[in-house]
Amino acid sequence: MSGSVPAQEQTYEDLGGKKVSDLISSDTAIDYLGNVTGTLKYVDWTDFSSEPDEQKGNYFPVHIDDQYKGKDITCKGEKTKTANDLDWVLLVKGSKSTFTFECEGKTILTLNFAGATLAPAPISLTSRKRVVRKKEE
After folding, report:
1. 17-42 pLDDT tens trace
2. Any domain includes 135
3. Of 2, 22, 78, 104, which residue has the fewest beta carbons closer than 10 angstroms?
């Protein structure tokens, strides 16, 4: 395996200062096959993207092993992105989501989320209408 979950206190300054602990539970892990377990919290995160459909959901932070430092890494998932970064934050759309990381034409990590818990969006109490029923006399 060529990736790990960052420390809970790690902060993403370039993404509005969110910490890893804001995104996932402390028991979240990646096993040697790339299976993710633990809870991905539901986050409203406008600093993550300028695209409205990417500003809310379950995000997963992953650190690619230091041996790939300075190399272009491609992540294939919902979209494909290539960057020279070791720290990635992924928007996970569902438990069937997978992300494959490649470097120099070789797969270095494939993540799947079938064993992870994706926390649902919180229910807004202000959007619910209260029904008051009158007592019959």
Report:
1. 899 999 999 999 999 999 999 999 99
2. no
3. 104
